[in-house]
Amino acid sequence: MPPRQFDGSRVRAVRRGRDLSQKQLGEMVGVSGPAVARWENGSEFPKGETLPALAAALGQALNVLFPHDGPPDLQLLRCDAGLSKGQAAAIINASRVPVSNAESGRRRLSDAYVEPLAQAYGVTEQELLAAQDRSFGIRTTSSRDEQASSPRTIREKITFLLEHGYVGQEPPSDEEIARAVNEHAGVTAVTADDIVALRTGATTDASDVVRAGLAHALQVGAELFQDDAEVDPAARDFFEALQFFGSIHRGQIIGLAARGNQTGLSAEMMAKINEVVGELKHKLPDVQGGK
């Protein structure tokens, strides 16, 4: 069934109102008359990518003739652009697998695919990433802090680590990061300008060698710079812990309740965090007691 609401009887009424036969309407959208008949009697549904052309042929606004509930996900963006999975895959020069996996919430799109698909779908990169979140069952939040707790792209990860991983210290410069990456790689893999491009999003993908070097340079586990779908829950907790310590430094948090999950921070780490918080508690300015 298409991602939008489809009412065959309504299509029939609009078609007749425009004095079109099923064959004529079918020719306008690239299908046979019998196919239109099956749509109208409810025995079949059109493909989602056919709905924009069908609405246009009937002289109706897409959202009026085929409404949908809530913000769009990746499937809806693709279909509203009139593209099949195969056509979307051709745009990113890949098989249908990355598109199918992202739409079904199994694996996120590679950074390199975001810009070309956003252009093809007629949306911004931010809108495409928000739609991807919805495909994964994640509800978009307006809280900038909550968004920052789950960095996805290489740019977001570098920015997050530089902002939250060097509390009370000067973060490394682009030149220092490039030097550390190259030392780890054993070859000249990047320049300072390359780091700037990755940090600002001008470049959206990197080789495994560069990803491993970035992890080394920024003193985190190599898995943190893998594709988002491959970052395990413990790695995500690491990002949360960095943000937590940043909040302590800003005087915003004075305690932390231990979480008893199996994939989060260890009990020893949680105990150490609470110990540090206890030591810092009396130093935090203008903070009332709390948890």
SSE diagram, text form:
Blueprint: H1 8-17, H2 22-29, H3 33-41, H4 51-57, H5 62-65, H6 74-80, H7 85-91, H8 97-103, H9 111-121, H10 125-135, H11 144-148, H12 154-164, H13 174-185, H14 192-200, H15 208-217, H16 233-249, H17 267-280
Average pLDDT score: 80
Strand content: under 5%
By secondary-structure content and strand pairing, the structural class works out as: mainly alpha
* Helicity level: 40-55%
* Major sheet size, sense and barrel closure: none
Unreliable segments of 5+ consecutive residues:
141-149, 250-265, 280-291
Task: Specify the overall morphology.
Answer: elongated
Element string (H = helix, E = strand): HHHHHHHHHHHHHHHHH
SS elements, strand count: 0
Distance between the termini: 48 Å
Number of helices: 17
| Radius of gyration over C-alpha positions, nearest whole angstrom | 25 Å
What is the quaternary state of this protein? single chain
Question: Could you explain how this protein is built, in words?
Answer:
The chain has helices spanning 8-17, 22-29, 33-41, 51-57, 62-65, 74-80, 85-91, 97-103, 111-121, 125-135, 144-148, 154-164, 174-185, 192-200, 208-217, 233-249, 267-280. By secondary structure, the chain is mostly helical. Mean pLDDT is 80; it is low at 141-149, 250-265 and 280-291.
Structure described in brief:
This protein has helices at 8-17, 22-29, 33-41, 51-57, 62-65, 74-80, 85-91, 97-103, 111-121, 125-135, 144-148, 154-164, 174-185, 192-200, 208-217, 233-249, 267-280. It is an all-alpha fold.
